[in-house]
Automatic annotation (TrEMBL):
Superkingdom of this protein's organism: Eukaryota
Known role: Translation initiation regulator which represses non-AUG initiated translation and repeat-associated non-AUG (RAN) initiated translation by acting as a competitive inhibitor of eukaryotic translation initiation factor 5 (EIF5) function. Increases the accuracy of translation initiation by impeding EIF5-dependent translation from non-AUG codons by competing with it for interaction with EIF2S2 within the 43S pre-initiation complex (PIC) in an EIF3C-binding dependent manner.
Gene assigned in the entry: BZW2
Pfam family, any one: HEAT_5MP1_2
Regions annotated as coiled coil: none
Stated name of the protein: eIF5-mimic protein 1
Homology family: Belongs to the BZW family.
Matching SUPFAM superfamilies: ARM repeat
Protein source organism: Heterocephalus glaber
Source taxonomy: Eukaryota, Metazoa, Chordata, Craniata, Vertebrata
Localization terms from the record: Cytoplasm
Keywords: Cytoplasm, Translation regulation
């Protein structure tokens, strides 16, 4: 019997091409190669960018990203806390880095371009660079004032061109940096550099997206976390746009909280006297004007009811509901401007909710009779202060009542003259 040979699997071993192999370096060897290349390139940042571009195919940037960025920023590998590991050995450090550059915006912007090119070429470094910048911000105490300034300028420029996200700023909220005033001082320099690249709206928009708009006060110690202190500090530093932004954000936050609490109290049908006391306390505590509160009250009152879907029934339901809360609105419409804001809110609401279109005039008359609105405010609204939404419909509805008000005014004037 012939022995049949068993089939054998054959295959080919693929060898990694030489140019695709990464040299296996320890961090120190990686450092030496990088430092040597940067020293050879010198102050020619184009040559630096080319060196980093070509060396990335040979050195393992992915593994040693922190070493790479430490050297590009500080000129040396950094120990935890930010001290230079090779401070005693100048052969293992380079002066061709951000910290040794001239302290001016144009020079630091040129360095920022080196980082931009490197990260565009090696996309996997994007997250590592973000982590590196968060780390460097935590190490600020270890750096000199001029080094902090250069790092702030670099961060601001890179935030401006989108290389870094605004979330890196969370490192500044660290207690030790806040207590010693480093966080606020660094933030001012960073924002100045950022706003030299982008306008104030772009900066504030980025802060909102990163949910940092409500945390800016945390740059200061707890006993100084007030809008007034922030506004003075940033305005004195030439950043009034940020002061104004924070004031608006704080006011919006306060109003949202007030609206939420008001809604809760109205849904529980709290006595109107209690609601009035609560609103007055909040106005005093948060320095809120009456004009800011009247619109919130209207919104909350209208949200407190499940409205009938039938147009012929909703007007009756609305008048009954608003008659109940007219005394509340009357307390916070003591100024002419507040009355006009309320009238505009009613107009917008009746336009946006089609079942209320025919109820507008009835609501205004109810508020007039309940001393929520004065005839002066109604006449001013009619002549010039109405908004565009449905104005022809609402002005037509109000025509007869306005004529009656004008006639009544004329009669009272003539009676006054006779007396």
């Amino acid at each position: 019997m012939n022995k049949h040979q068993k089939p054998v699997l054959t295959g080919q071993r693929f060898k990694t091409r030489k140019r695709d192999e990464k040299e296996k370096f320890e961090p120190t060897v990686f450092r030496d190669t990088l430092v040597q290349g940067l020293n050879e390139a010198g102050d020619d940042l184009e040559a630096v960018a080319k060196f980093l571009d070509s060396t990335g195919s040979r050195l393992d940037y992915r593994r040693y990203a922190d070493t790479l960025f430490d050297i590009l920023v500080a000129g040396s590998m950094l120990a935890p806390g930010g001290t230079r590991i090779d401070d005693g050995d100048k052969t293992k450090m380079t002066n061709h880095c951000v910290f040794s550059a001239n302290e001016d915006h144009e020079t630091i912007r040129n360095y920022a371009q080196v980082f931009n090119k490197l990260i565009r070429r090696y996309k996997y470094l994007e997250k590592a660079f973000e982590d590196e910048m968060k780390k460097l911000l935590l190490f600020l105490k270890a750096f000199s004032e001029t080094e902090q300034t250069k790092l702030a300028m670099l961060s601001g420029i890179l935030l401006g061109n989108g290389t870094l996200p605004a979330t890196i700023l969370t490192s500044l909220f660290t207690d030790s940096l806040v207590k010693e005033g480093i966080a606020a001082s660094f933030a001012v320099k960073l924002f100045k550099a950022w706003m030299a690249e982008k306008d104030a709206n772009s900066v504030t928009s980025s802060l909102r997206k990163a949910n940092l708009d409500k945390r800016l006060l945390e740059l200061f110690p707890v006993n100084r976390q007030s809008v007034d202190h922030f506004a003075k500090y940033f305005t004195d530093a030439g950043l009034k746009e940020l002061s104004d932004f924070l004031r608006i954000q704080q006011s919006l936050g306060t109003r949202k909280e007030l609206q939420k609490e008001l809604q809760e109290r109205l849904s529980q049908e709290c006595p109107i006297k209690e609601v009035v006391l609560y609103v007055k306390e909040e106005m005093k505590r948060n320095d809120l004007p009456e004009t800011a509160v009247i619109g919130l009250l209207w919104t909350c009152i209208m949200n407190a009811v499940e409205w009938n879907k039938k147009e012929e029934l909703v007007a009756e339901q609305a008048l009954k509901h608003l008659k109940q809360y007219a005394p509340l609105l009357a307390v916070f419409s003591s100024q002419g401007q507040s009355e006009l804001i309320l009238l505009q809110k009613v107009q917008e609401y009746c336009y946006d909710n089609i079942h209320f279109m025919k109820a507008f005039q009835k609501i205004v008359v109810l508020f007039y009779k309940a001393d929520v609105l004065s005839e002066e405010a109604i006449l001013k609204w009619y002549k010039e202060a109405h908004v565009a939404k449905g104005k022809s419909v609402f002005l037509d509805q109000m025509k007869k009542f306005v004529e009656w008000l004008q006639n009544a005014e004329e009669e009272s004037e003539s009676e006054g003259e006779e007396n």
